[in-house]
Structures are given as structure tokens and as C-alpha cells.
Design a protein that fits this description.
The complex is a heterodimer. Chain A is of the alpha+beta class. Chain A folds into two domains: about 90 residues, Gyrase A, domain 2 (2-Layer Sandwich), CATH 3.30.1360; about 140 residues, Cyclophilin, CATH 2.40.100.10. Chain A is built from six helices and 13 strands. In chain A, the strands form three sheets. Chain A has a seven-stranded mixed sheet with strand order 5-13-6-7-10-9-12. A four-stranded antiparallel sheet of chain A has the order 1-2-4-3. Chain A has a two-stranded antiparallel sheet with strand order 8-11. In chain A, strand 9 and strand 10 form a beta hairpin. Chain A is elongated. Chain A starts with a strand and ends with a helix. Chain B folds into two domains: about 180 residues, no CATH class; about 120 residues, Cyclophilin-like (Cyclophilin). Helices cover about 15% and strands about 30% of the residues of chain B. The mean pLDDT of chain B is about 95. The chains are: A alpha+beta, B alpha+beta. At the A-B interface, strand 3, strand 4 and helix 2 of A face strand 15, strand 19 and helix 5 of B.
């Protein structure tokens, strides 16, 4: 397992080499690694940032030195403790970590679905079939980022995969549900973005007054349910 | 107890030492771009080092207080005043009720940090009082200070009260911190860096160019990152990576070949290859870079980066201990 300095206060742990062959396994390995490292309570560690195939561990070098690391080899000191924690983890069965299943209601009507026709044309199907395919799959949250609470969801039907727009939009409304390449995601806050918008959810994906502040976290499972304009209005009231 | 910003200036926001623990939810670190300057200023003002202060970009701020306050500022080459008296960086000053603290546009650098005794008492959101201007929360409801805006201050602590009494007559303390912490703005700085996680995604000549050539700061720079114009840095493969963690100090290279040095408000994950990571002690220097400025990069070892950071922290601890006599 490759462990590389990500600057002087973080390391990047490459947990799996390949994502496309087995996305689900990659996620399981990443989450198990993060859990093992959290449990190891390595002195000086501040927080973690899991992503598709990696876990980043952020640390305070001065706290590591105060805990016994020599200033000459803080990185090696941290690396050794990471490897020890992960060795112990391998003895435990790394079962698939079942996140919670979250249903996201989406209104796919024209007003919100800026690029639904474009996606349908690209796929060579009627727009209703795009909606059906989008609602049929169960997705998994591979990571959260881009903006606070933005979930990158894997599991999209290949039929409706579509490259990002050549020119990103300057502003995409909060709640927009979109497709970018083989992934689908939800814009939690108003932001620029290059994905193809196919609908909008009334659910709030990010609320800084809550802990945790994001509705979804890596490992969670997601299903989309098509709702009417009236249902959308009712839920935002 | 409050402060009123009669003029908010170009971009002034509430910042503390940032927000940790929520990266996995995509929440940026945020906080003062020169956290060290804010820590020192806070200690000098009799605050905890993590108190919230103001980050002032390009000056233009005019403040008054509803009661007597100690203020300390640090940062670029600004002309600050307490009333009509010039106030140098790093010197604690008493600003009485009705008097004005002002800070004009800088002769060098672009940012300053202001600590006010008692700290800025906005609610902590996700463990920090910093304004996340991109996501729109924290600080003053996630936006910059506005002209005429009044904001709450915490009570002066016992330490600040001692200082207020001591400064009744001279108003500005003669003492200041011993180290060169308060004006890191310098022409054509060199930022030290560690090799990037994705160095092998670049052709050898690109790695050489990055270390040898100068880059110019593009106007399209902000608290998220500094965009740099210079010789395009050619990648050895054209594919973007699967998104993975980035951090303040990371230098990433989009397909255009023009690097971006990420700062505190950067995204938590990104898919552009990372050519370098600027070391922590040099990020305050980066925070002073203005559009058009020239900057160079120089590679160092991670041992050097940690030794420099340790030296800075030990100096700060020593300085903190030495300060005690002024608060008795």
C-alpha cells in the first residue's frame, strides 16, 4: 500500500490501485481503512478525507513531535503507525460496510431539468426513459466533496452516462440533480458546475447547523424517486 | 458590546484558525490565510490565540467600538491608524470609545489580520467562527462585512483589562513581537515546496520548469486559490485522476498547464494532478501575493519543512511565555 506525503501536514494512502474493476470493493476498503485509522488514535492526527481509492490523513507535525516523533522523521513515524494499524485491520474480516439507504425525491419536470432533453438525445431514448433508468438503480456514495455535502454517486446505468458540458454553467441552483460521466450527483448549494442537470430535489443536502452537516456520507446507498411539481412545492414549504 | 464597520473595505471577513473535522463532508478548512499572524495578534491583544478576528483584503476598513478595546494587526505593508496616530504592525494599541481604527490600501501585499480584545463573538458553526464565503455559512452568516455593519464582540478578558489600564496614557505599546511575523509581504518571493503526490504525471521538463521559472499571479485568484501564469507545465498523460484529497498548499495543474496554488477555502478533493505542495510556514507569504506579482518555487525536503515548522512553534511558545509580564 502506497503512503505518500501530501505536503508537510498530510499523507495520502492509496488503498486500492484500481477503481473501475470493482468500485464496491474499493469503497469497502477505503471505509475500512478510515475506520481502522480512526480507531488507532495516532498522536497528532487531526482528521481524514476518504475518496474513491484513497484516504488522506491530516496531522499536526508538532503534536507528533511532542508525542515522541523525531523532527528528522515525522513522516516515517506517522507512516509506521499507519502500517501497523492497517496490518491489524487485515486480521479482521473487511465485510462490506452497509451505509444507510436514503431515498431522494426528485422532480424531473422541464423547469428544473435543464439538460434532460440533451441527455435523452445523447442516449437515443425518450426523456421518460432517462428518468426511469435514473430511478431504477441503487447508487452508492463514493465520496463527498466539490462543495460541502456534494455526493459523488456510483452505479449509474451506462445507457444514460454523458460527458460533462464543454462550458460549465456559472450557476447551478441548490438541489439540482445531475449526471457527469458515469456518475450522478446533487448540488447541495448554489454553485458553478459542468454536470448535466436532469431534475431537482427539495431535500436539503447540507445544513451547517446539523451534526453531521451532510445528509449523505461515503458508503451510504441512495435511490431516486420521481415526484410531481406539486409534491416538490409541498416539501419545500 | 460591539464594533461597527463604517467602511467595510474591499473584502473583510470574520476568520479564526479554521474548521477541522468536517473534511469528509466536503467542508473546507477556511480560517485566516495567515493563521500564524492571527495567533500572534490575538496573544498580543490578551485573547486566546484561537479567537476570531478580521481578515482584511486590500484595506479600506474603518472601525469604531462601543467600549475600550485593545487592537493588534499584522500582515502586509498597510498604513493603519488609531485615530490620527499611525499604528505599526504588532504593537498593541488602545482604541477608546468613539475613536476610529482605520487601515488603508497596502503599499505591498494584500492582506492584514486584526485581533480585537474579547474577540468577535459570532456563533461558532461546525466548531469555527470563520466565514465560509463560498458555502455561505459561519462568520457573519457566510458573507463579508458590509458597510455600516455592527457585529458583536466578546467581553474584554482580565488580561486585556490590564493592558487597557497600562495604555491609558501612551495608547500604543512600545513593545512588539521579536520575530519577523507581521509583514511577510515581500517582492518576488520564493515559496518552498515538497514534491507533488502526482509528480509522475508530468514530463521531466515540466518539473524542472516549475522549480526554475517565475510565475505571475493571475487576477482570477481568491481565498480558494492563486492562479498562476507562466510556462505551461506539460503532463505526461492526459487523463485526469479520480478525485482525491487536496489541501491548502497543494499546487494542482489543470489541462491548460497553468498551475493553481490552493489556499484555505479550497475544495476538499480534486481531480487535477498535484505537482507540488507549498510548505506550511510559507503559506503566509503566499497569502500576500497580489495579481501581477512574480513568484518562484524552490524544492526542499520534508525534514526541512518540519524543522522550520517546529522552530516557528517553539518561537511562538517562547514569545507567549515572555508576554506574561505585560499582562500583570
Amino acid at each position: 500500500m502506497e503512503i505518500t506525503p501530501l505536503g508537510d501536514s498530510a499523507v495520502l494512502i492509496r488503498v486500492v490501485e484500481n477503481f473501475d474493476d470493482a468500485p464496491d470493493d474499493a469503497l469497502t476498503q477505503v471505509l475500512a481503512t478510515k475506520r481502522a485509522l480512526e480507531a488507532a488514535r495516532i498522536p497528532g492526527v487531526v482528521e481524514f478525507a476518504p475518496a474513491y481509492t484513497t484516504v488522506a490523513l491530516f496531522y499536526d507535525p508538532v503534536r507528533a513531535i511532542d508525542a515522541g516523533a523525531s523532527v528528522e522523521n515525522v513522516f516515517e513515524w506517522i507512516e509506521q503507525r499507519i502500517r501497523r494499524a492497517l496490518l491489524e485491520m487485515e486480521e479482521i474480516q473487511t465485510n462490506r460496510i452497509e451505509g444507510s439507504l436514503v431515498e431522494i425525491p426528485v422532480c424531473y419536470e422541464t423547469e428544473f431539468a435543464l439538460d434532460l432533453e440533451h441527455v435523452a438525445r445523447h442516449a437515443g431514448v425518450h426523456w421518460k426513459e432517462v428518468v426511469d433508468l435514473h430511478c431504477a438503480a441503487e447508487y452508492r456514495v463514493h465520496c463527498v466533496g466539490f462543495t460541502p455535502g456534494f455526493p459523488f454517486l456510483g452505479g449509474l446505468s451506462r445507457k444514460i452516462a454523458i460527458p460533462r458540458r464543454d462550458v460549465p454553467r456559472k450557476e447551478i441552483p441548490a438541489g439540482s440533480v445531475a449526471i457527469g460521466g458515469m456518475q450522478t450527483g446533487i448540488y447541495p448549494i448554489k454553485s458553478p458546475g459542468g454536470w448535466n442537470v436532469i431534475g431537482r430535489t427539495p431535500r436539503q443536502l447540507f445544513d451547517p447547523q446539523k451534526d453531521p452537516p451532510a445528509l449523505l456520507r461515503a458508503g451510504d446507498r441512495v435511490r431516486f424517486r420521481s415526484i410531481t411539481r406539486e409534491e416538490f412545492e409541498r416539501s419545500t414549504m | 458590546m460591539s464594533a461597527t464597520a463604517f467602511r467595510a473595505g474591499f473584502l473583510t471577513s470574520v476568520q479564526d484558525l479554521g474548521r477541522t473535522g468536517f473534511r469528509e463532508f466536503g467542508v473546507s478548512l477556511g480560517g485566516a490565510l495567515d493563521a500564524h499572524a492571527l495567533r500572534v495578534a490575538n496573544l498580543l491583544a490578551g485573547n486566546e490565540e484561537s479567537a476570531a478576528g478580521l481578515e482584511i483584503t486590500f484595506g479600506g476598513l474603518r472601525l469604531r467600538f462601543a467600549d475600550d478595546r485593545i487592537v493588534v494587526w499584522g500582515g502586509g505593508n498597510f498604513d493603519a491608524r488609531s485615530g490620527s496616530t499611525s499604528l505599526p504592525a504588532g504593537h498593541p494599541a488602545l482604541v477608546r470609545v468613539g475613536e476610529e481604527f482605520s487601515i488603508d490600501s497596502p503599499a505591498g501585499g494584500c492582506r492584514a489580520w486584526l485581533a480585537i480584545s474579547g474577540g468577535i463573538d459570532v456563533p461558532a458553526v461546525l466548531g469555527s467562527r470563520s466565514g465560509d464565503l463560498r458555502a455561505g455559512f459561519g462568520g457573519l452568516t457566510g458573507r463579508p462585512v458590509r458597510d455600516g455593519e455592527e457585529f458583536p464582540l466578546g467581553q474584554n478578558m482580565a488580561r486585556a483589562k490590564v493592558l487597557i489600564e497600562k495604555l491609558r496614557t501612551e495608547k500604543i505599546a512600545r513593545w512588539k513581537p521579536p520575530h519577523d511575523w507581521s509583514s511577510p509581504a515581500r517582492p518576488a518571493p520564493v515559496l518552498r515546496y515538497l514534491g507533488g503526490v502526482d509528480s509522475d504525471h508530468f514530463v521531466e521538463s515540466a518539473l524542472q520548469l516549475f522549480n526554475d521559472e517565475g510565475f505571475f499571479v493571475s487576477p482570477d485568484s481568491d481565498r480558494m486559490g492563486i492562479r498562476l501564469d507562466g510556462p505551461p507545465l506539460e503532463r505526461s498523460h492526459d487523463v485526469d485522476l479520480l478525485s482525491e484529497a487536496v489541501a491548502p498548499g497543494t499546487v494542482q495543474v489543470p489541462p491548460s498547464g497553468e498551475p493553481i496554488l490552493l489556499l484555505n477555502d479550497c475544495q476538499t478533493i480534486g481531480g487535477y494532478p498535484k505537482i507540488a505542495h507549498v510548505i506550511t510556514v510559507d503559506l503566509p507569504v503566499a497569502a500576500q501575493l497580489c495579481p501581477g506579482d512574480r513568484v518562484r518555487f524552490s524544492k526542499v525536503s520534508i525534514r526541512d519543512a518540519h524543522a522550520l515548522l517546529l522552530e516557528r512553534e517553539r518561537n511562538l511558545e517562547q514569545f507567549h511565555r515572555g508576554l506574561e509580564s505585560h499582562f500583570k
